[in-house]
Every structure is written in structure tokens, then in C-alpha cells.
Amino acid sequence: MSQSMSQGTLQTGFVPSNTEMAMRNERRLTSLTNLSREERRRRRRATQKYRLAHASRERIRVEAFNIAFAQLRKLLPTLPPDKKLSKIEILRLAICYIDYLNHVVVV
Question: Which portions of the chain have biased composition (kind: Basic residues) (predicted)?
Fold first, then answer.
């Protein structure tokens, strides 16, 4: 089969006419409009372009999340100062430190 043939070419070498292609596109569009909202959303999310965009947004979100934890970690006193803390440890230490600072202000 020739590489110059269109995508609509079948194994038999048949090339659909413009009218046939238009009819196929119209049927496809009609079938898409009859789908439920959930099904349209599911099909849109199944595309490679959508998945790549979603993965990129997720990486940016996780990076911002990690930066926020690093900034919070710098504000908390620990011994030793460079001790590696998990995110839950950072949150618990922040709560304790805020309670301590409130106590200092009250006294």
C-alpha cells in the first residue's frame, strides 16, 4: 500500500470520497452529542493530550506543595537544625510550636 494514500484508506485500497468522509464525520459528531456528560468527560480525559496536560499540572501542584513544606520547615526549631522531618512531623511540630508561642505571648 502506498504511503501517500489517505488515512481513510482500507486494506483493499479503497479511498472514501469527500462526501463519504463528511457523512462519517457527521455520524461521529452526532454520536458524541448523544453521549452523557460523564461519558463525554471520560472520553476527553482518555486522550493523550489531556493526560499529558494533567500530569504537568499535577507535577506543578506537588512541587508547590513541597516548597511550602520546605518553607514551613525552615521556620521550626529542631535539634539538630538540619534533621530531616516527614511532612506529618513538620505539621505536628508546627502545631506544637504555635501552641508554645501562644503560651509565651499570654504569659
Answer: 40-50
Collapse the DSSP code of 83 into the 3-class scheme (helix H, G, I; strand E, B; otherwise coil) and give the result.
coil
Class level of CATH domain 19-106: few secondary structures
Whole-model pTM over 0.90: no
pLDDT digits (tens, 9 = 90+) for 2-19: 444 444 444 556 666 777
Contact (CB, 8 A) for 85 and 73: yes
**Hey, what's the torsion of the CAs at 61, 62, 65, 67, to 10 degrees?**
-110
CA distance 94 to 86: 12
Output Rg (C-alpha) for the chain, integer angstroms: 29
Say how far apart CA 60 and CA 82 lie, in whole Å.
26
Whole-angstrom Cα distance, residue 101 to residue 58? 35
